[in-house]
Amino acid sequence: MRFWLRTEEMALEEMVQRLNAVSRHTDEIMHQDIVPLCAADIQDQLKKRFAYLSGGRGQDGSPVITFPDYPAFSEIPDKEFQNVMTYLTGIPSLQDAGIGFILLIDRRRDKWTSVKASVLRIAASFPANLQLVLVLRPTGFFQRTLSDIAFKFNRDDFKMKVPVIMLSSVPDLHGYIDKSQLTEDLGGTLDYCHSRWLCQRTAIESFALMVKQTAQMLQSFGTELAETELPNDVQSTSSVLCAHMEKKDKAKEDLWLALKEGHNILESLREPQAEGSEPGVNQDQLDNQATVQRLLAQLNETEAAFDEFWAKHQQKLEQCLQLRHFEQGFREVKAVLDTVSQKIATFTDIGNSLAHVEHLLRDLASFEERSSVAVERAQALSLDGEQLIENKHYAVDSIHPKCQELRHLCDQFSAEIARRRGLLSKSLELHHRLETSMKWCDEGIYLLASQPVDKCQSQDGAEAALQEIEKFLETGTENKIQELSTIYKEYESILNQDLMEHVRKVFQKQASMEEVFHRRQASLKKLAARQTRPVQPVAPRPEALAKSPCPSPGIRRGSENCSSEGVLRRGPYRRAKSEMSESRQSRGSAGEEEESLAILRRHVMSELLDTERAYVEELLCVLEGYAAEMDNPLMAHLLSTGLHSKKDVLFGNMEEIYHFHNSPFVLREKQLSSFCVQPRIFLRELENYTACPELVGRCFLERMEDFQIYEKYCQNKPRSESLWRQCSDCPFFQECQRKLDHKLSLDSYLLKPVQRITKYQLLLKEMLKYSKNCEGAEDLQEALSSILGILKAVNDSMHLIAITGYDGNLGDLGKLLMQGSFSVWTDHKRGHTKVKELARFKPMQRHLFLHEKAVLFCKKREENGEGYEKAPSYSYKQSLNMAAVGITENVKGDAKKFEIWYNAREEVYIVQAPTPEIKAAWVNEIRKVLTSQLQACREASQHRALEQSHSLPLPAPTSTSPSRGNPRNIKKLEERKTDPLSLEGYGSSAPLSKPPEKGKASPTSPDKKAKRHEVKSDPTPFGLRGWSKTSHSLEAPEDDGGWSSAEEQINSSDAEEDGGVGPKKLVLGKYTVVADHEKGGPDALVVRSGDVVELVQEGDEGLWYVRDSTTGKEGWVPASSLSVHLGQSSSAQCLSSSESSPGSAVLSNSSSCSEGGQAPFNLQA
């Protein structure tokens, strides 16, 4: 680097010296060092032509200066005269001027006095050497005579260093100067034009000045270039190089203009010679040409000096730019290689199964392929650096270490990849051996399980089974693990704690299996051995002794008792032995069955993992081979116009699904910069359950929320299929399919996510089938239910998006709970008159959508088309707000019918389900919605009562009362001093002393008419204010449904007889516990969800005193934990709503029976 700087300094010094020489030589050529005058400076004085240099020469080559007849010669200022003389004497070369000048003074038309004065002035002021002065005296007779006489008498006045010769005529002049050296006015033939001469002199001197200025300009420019500091980045270096190139081009342009000007002047000087008008050219013209040529030579020298300097300066800038490119590339490559090294350092996993190791090897190969771009770039950059060094780059000391570092990083990467691949290969080999051993064990277990026990009881069967076992044991040499110590030593480099434990378990399993085989082998050998027993003759015995324990009648005397004892002793022993044998066989059978189930579970798990990996590969193939190619400019010409900006429509959220299952899908050039990202990967989490497949349900449960992305994909599928049908013949898809070598078109792969989400529930069912008594059975069941729920939600959402004509936002209706097709009859009431609207013998076919806040009635319309376009659409007809809905479970004894009624039965819809099961499911779901509203009412009332218990009583509500709009009802409430905050069953002031006495009238006593006890409250969660006082209505229902309006409740007979609102009557009866309640006090009752209790007494602060119907225990429980028991009794239950009091909840137990045999349980919300 220092050497290069020194070289550049030397180049600059050399250029400066050469350009200074050019300036100096230019001054010498133009005699500027002696006569600093220029024609342009005294142009006006030269134009007077009182003296000129014609170019003529004397016989010895002396320059001739002619003073023509100029009447006003005496009036010329001395300064002007002196300037012109100095300038004219400075034009000839120093050699010619050294000879001396010949002055030719023409005074033929002047007087003698002027002649004398002119000669004396010239002689006194002439600045150069004089050789001869020739004077043409006046031609007039008198003046000539006078001049002769005067010259003789005044000769002493003309004594000069050179002789002064008075000539009488022009011919006398020719004796001193040749005619060819004289102008035409002096009788000569020399061509001279004063104006042309003046122009030429001005041009030559201007050109000389241009040469000098050009040299000075290039000298300054070169100094500026040499002093420019080199930038440290590519952008700035490129800018400097471009700027210097522009300045150099401008300077060269000026130089070329100067050269062109010099050549033009030279041509103009050569024109008379070129025309051939005269055979000869005067010496001054030749001198002028020589001057221009010398100036051109100096200009060429200037250009050469600058070009040499610029070549070195340009080389320095270009090498600087190369260095900056190299340094920038080095920084980028080093950053990527450092990231790659960090990523490799995180590759510590050696796999927990054969499939996992194979996957890690594929990942390593993929990572190596992605990283190869950076490695190849580093190698290419290193070669570029070495090439720069070979080309004598000035920064060798900076380039060489970087090249070494790049080679080191590449070698380190290759070595680390090789080391990692070696470890994984070792792990693959070990897992393959473990897998082989486990497979051998499984085959052995299958072999044991496949040998029938009954056939093994015979000698031939036992021998055949024994041969199978011995043959199988012979295969263990190449399949089983021989020694643990050998495994530990051979695979020491990869064995971690988990893998060692896995190896130990496999070895133990192998040993256990071999032990079972050896036991079976020993048993079969015993069965296969031929047993020969001696045959003893047995004599017949009397019938009376047939039941004797003695074996034969011949053994009687001394041996009889002994034999009897032996027989009796052997009997219990044989029974015990038989029982022990049966026990061992049952235990062995149970163990073999469990092992078989474990093998089946592993098979299901293997299928789950294999299909998952294949699915992930297919998704990646579609994303890289189709979706990414849609953004490839090289493929843009193949895309049809209908596909532009439609990638999201065609592929939906497939990329998001891929992110969930495997890893983020990014462009390959960005993958190296995102190595540090470690997202949760479903495939990896599944692989963690390879050793315990029965627990895989936990994996699904942990990621269940993420499966919602499939709902989004399925909702977009109709749009995707529609777009595919429009553009399936596009050349783009055909080209992508050709590149991927796919046999199936894209639409088959777009169906993969839909197929995959349905495949999970099948695999979970299989796993659950083989895991009934395992630890994770509950998780598997829950995961299966959740997956089925997702499939149902996906299916429901596909129906939901097909609804047309609904003006509102379906999302505002809450979660879609149920949907299905039903037969519907309508039955509306106008005022107090029940009217059948267009009584239909044939029901309407409606598709119902049950949301949390509304139920929608739609008409199903079948569509013509293919695929999803053939799916039905649903025309919106009407909707019912769940805040005003009620249901009656059974209608006219039809097990498939139920009622949905609205606004206190002003609108009744009889709904017939396809099956009783579907009806039950819908009734239960609607009951859940209404019960949740009741629960919200209770919680709101308790909260409101608690807030208002410390404040003054508020006036009775008006607009929010259940009986609003009826002045009579409002007046009744005011007369009774109704407390707007009291709510039956919630705000009673009765003390919590003892339970009521038996035998008191119950609200459902048979001695009274059918009554309805309703609790009206304001469910604050639905945004309404105010509470109404409970009223008890004893009026009979107006129809079989048993429903009454709010006005009937206020005008009940009980209220009129009492003349006011007396103590609240309890709604006695059975209730179902809907929430667990732990023991919170000495008098609290512990209940569980689903328990049935009987109300005994209502207490303060929302507590009820109840009796457990099962245990008979009594105690206090929160009222919010109870719901009216919906069992079969004389009074049925129904959930309802009434529009007469929007936002208020009414709990109604009616003893009247509906047409279906059940009275309603009414929840008004």
From TrEMBL:
InterPro entries per the UniProt record, alphabetical: CRAL-TRIO_dom, CRAL-TRIO_dom_sf, DBL_dom_sf, DBS_PH, DBS_SH3, DH_dom, GDS_CDC24_CS, PH-like_dom_sf
GO biological process, one term: intracellular signal transduction
Region (Disordered): 528-594, 941-1063, 1133-1165
GO cellular component: cytoplasm; plasma membrane
Superkingdom per UniProt: Eukaryota
SUPFAM superfamilies named in the record: CRAL/TRIO domain (SSF52087), DBL homology domain (DH-domain) (SSF48065), PH domain-like (SSF50729), SH3-domain (SSF50044), Spectrin repeat (SSF46966)
Compositionally biased region (Polar residues): 1142-1165
GO molecular-function term, one example from the UniProt record: lipid binding
Compositionally skewed regions (Basic and acidic residues) per UniProt: 576-585
Domain PH, first and last residues per copy: 815-931
Entry keywords, A to Z: Cell membrane, Coiled coil, Cytoplasm, Guanine-nucleotide releasing factor, Lipid-binding, Membrane, Phosphoprotein, SH3 domain
Compartments where found: Cell membrane; Cytoplasm
Residue ranges constituting the SH3 domain according to the UniProt record: 1066-1127
TM helices/strands, residue ranges: none
Sequence ranges of Low complexity compositional bias: 951-963
Domain DH residues, every copy: 600-797
Membrane topology, from the record: Peripheral membrane protein
Main location as per UniProt: membrane
Domain CRAL-TRIO: 22-194
PANTHER family named in the record: GUANINE NUCLEOTIDE EXCHANGE FACTOR DBS (PTHR22826:SF115), RHO GUANINE EXCHANGE FACTOR-RELATED (PTHR22826)
Family indicated by similarity: Belongs to the MCF2 family.
Assembly, per entry: Interacts with GTP-bound RAC1. Interacts with CDC42. Interacts with RHOA. Interacts with CCPG1, which results in specific inhibition of its exchange activity toward RHOA, but does not affect its activity on CDC42.
Protein name as catalogued: Guanine nucleotide exchange factor DBS
Organism: Callithrix jacchus (White-tufted-ear marmoset)
